[in-house]
Amino acid sequence: MHRHLALLAYLLCAFITYVTAEHSFENTAIVRTVELAGSLVHVRTTFVVKALETGSMIYAFALGPDEAEKTSFFEVRLKNEQTPIELQHFGFNAQSNTYLYAAILPNALKKNDNVTLELETVQTHATYPWPAAIGQNDEMTLKYETGLFVLSPYPTSVQRTKIRSSSPRIKSYTEPSNVEAFTLDAPVTKSGATITYGPFSNIPTSALASFTEDTQQRITIHFNHDLPVMEITKMKRAAEISHWGSNLNIQDDIWLHNAGPQLKGHFSRLEHQQQTYNNRPAGHVLRAFSVMLPTGVRDVYYTDIVGNVSTSHLRASPSVPKGTKGKQSSYLEIRPRYPLMGGWNYSFTVGWDSPLSDWAAYDKRDGRYVVAVPILTQFPDTVIDEAEIKIILPEGATDLEIYPPYSPISVKKSMHSTYLDTKGRPAVSFFFKDLTDRHAGFIYVAYKITFFEHLRKPMTIAAVIFGLFVLSSAARRMDMRIRSKNY
Ligand SMILES: *[C@@H]1O[C@H](CO)[C@@H](O)[C@H](O)[C@H]1NC(C)=O
Ligand SMILES: *[C@@H]1O[C@H](CO)[C@@H](O)[C@H](O)[C@H]1NC(C)=O
Ligand SMILES: *[C@@H]1O[C@H](CO)[C@@H](O)[C@H](O)[C@H]1NC(C)=O
C-alpha cells in the first residue's frame, strides 16, 4: 500500500516533467496489428523497449484523441505473461496532443535492458458503412480510419502497421505521401487480406503536437465485410440470486440494432427468399446468430413483444464443477422473428436458470457467501453501447460488498420486491458503456445472510399455505353444510 502511494506520487512528478525531460526509454521496434471487423476492431501493438537509464520503470503509451475516443478496452502485459500490468490513465495532455497511459513495470530496468510490452485495445464504432445506403442484394463495404504512425513519447527505431481485413476484397487503401524521411521503399504493400504500412525507421518522439500537425497522417481502408454489423444499443441484465431454490436467474432485455448500411428502397420478401433459396444471403442482413450460455443452464427462454420465439434452438450442456478448464458451453441460436436490414431494430428477452452452486461459494471464516455474477453474454462481434446489470440479492442479505472487474460509470442501490417477499430484496445496479468481448467477466458480490433469513421465505410460504388450509377447511365445512342441506 505504502509502496503504491509513494509510486503514485513519483509517477505524477515524473509525468509533469516528462514532456520536457530527457526520456528514459527508446522503442527498438513497434509492430501494430489491426484486426478489422464490424462493431469491434481489435488492435494489438508490440513494443520492444530499451531503458536508457537505470531505474526506469514507468513506460508511457500515447493515443491520439480520435483513437482514444474509440478505444474502450486498454490492457498491457509483458510478453508471455498472464497478468496485466498496472496502468494509470492520465487523460488528455495538451502538450503532447495525446491521451497518456502509464504502465508501471513490475521491476525497474537497468540501463540498456530491454523488455517487450504488448498493448491490447478494442475499438468500438470504429468502422462505418460506405456507401451509407445500399440495395438489398448489394454487397456491404466498410471504411476504417486510423493514424499512419503509432504515437509514442519516446523515439522509435523501426515501426510497422499491419491491417488485416475480414476479406481479401479490399476496395481501396491510402497511399501515404511525404514519408521519404522514414523509408525509401514502398510505404504500403498488400498481400491477400493484409495491408502493411512500413517499416518506417528513425521516428522521433511523436507524442507531440508538432508531430501530429506536420508528420502524422490519416489512412483509410475500404473493405468488403460479409457479416452483419451488430450493435446492442441497450442491454438490461437482471441477475437474481436465490438460496431458496438454489438458483441464479439471469434475464437480459436486449435492444439490437443492425448498424450496417441503410436499406435503399423497400424490403422485398421475395428477394430475400430468393437469396435464401440460392444460398447466397446478403452479408449485411442479420438473420440469426449463436450465443454461448454457461453449462448447466435450464428453462432457457427467448421471447419478444409477440411472445415465445419458437424458431430458436438450444444445445444445452450439463453443469460441471467450478473452475473446470475446457468445459463445453451451451449454445443458443437466436433467430429474430424477421430478417434485420441495415438500420433496423429488434428487441427481445433471453433468460435462463442455473444452479447457484455453479456460481456461489461459502466462506466459512467470515460466514459470507461470494457469488460470481457474469456481466454479459457474448454476441459475435457486437458492441454494447449501454449496459445496466442489476444484481438482486436474497432477502435479508447484509454486509454487502461488491467487486466489479473494472470501474462502472455508476452504481445504484435499491430494494426489489417480488411476490412472497416480506421485506424486499437488496439490489445493486451497475452501469457501463461500450462493452466488448474483452469485458466479459464477473462482478463478485459478497454478503451475509442469517439462518433466520434463510427461513424467511419458507416461513412466508408456510404462512400462506396455512392460511389457504384454514380457508379451504372452512370452505369444506361450509360445503358440507350446503351438501347436507341437499340430503
Ligand atoms: C536487448 O537488446 C540487445 C540489442 O538489441 C540484444 O543484444 C539483447 O539480447 C536484448 N536483450 C534481451 C533480454 O532481449
Ligand atoms: C418456446 O419455444 C421453445 C423452442 O424454442 C419451446 O421449446 C418451448 O416449449 C416454447 N415455450 C412455450 C411456453 O411455448
Ligand atoms: C433504432 O433504434 C435507434 C435508437 O436505439 C433509433 O435511433 C432508430 O431510429 C431506430 N430505428 C428504427 C428503424 O426504428
Q: Summary?
A:
Helices cover 15% and strands 47% of the residues. With 487 residues, the protein is an alpha+beta fold.
How would you characterize the overall build of this protein?
There is one protein chain. The protein is an alpha+beta fold and 487 residues long. It has 2 domains: 2-224, Sandwich (Immunoglobulin-like); 230-453, Immunoglobulin-like (Sandwich), CATH 2.60.40. 15% of the residues lie in helices and 47% in strands. It contains 5 helices and 31 strands.
Protein traits:
487 residues; alpha+beta; Immunoglobulin-like; 8-stranded mixed β-sheet; 7-stranded mixed β-sheet; 5 helices; disordered C terminus; binds 2-acetamido-2-deoxy-beta-D-glucopyranose; Ribophorin_I; transmembrane
Topology:
Layout: H1 2-18, E1 25-35, E2 40-51, E3 56-63, H2 65-70, E4 71-78, E5 87-93, E6 98-109, E7 114-124, E8 127-129, E9 133-134, E10 141-147, E11 156-164, E12 170-173, E13 188-191, E14 194-203, H3 209-214, E15 218-224, E16 230-242, E17 247-258, E18 262-263, H4 269-277, E19 289-293, E20 298-304, E21 307-308, E22 313-315, E23 330-334, E24 345-355, E25 360-363, E26 368-374, E27 382-392, E28 398-403, E29 410-416, E30 425-435, E31 442-448, H5 451-486
Parallel strand pairs: 1-11, 9-18, 16-27
Antiparallel strand pairs: 1-2, 2-7, 3-6, 4-7, 5-6, 8-10, 10-15, 11-14, 12-15, 13-14, 16-17, 17-24, 19-23, 20-21, 20-24, 22-23, 25-26, 26-31, 27-30, 28-31, 29-30
The chain binds 2-acetamido-2-deoxy-beta-D-glucopyranose (3 copies).
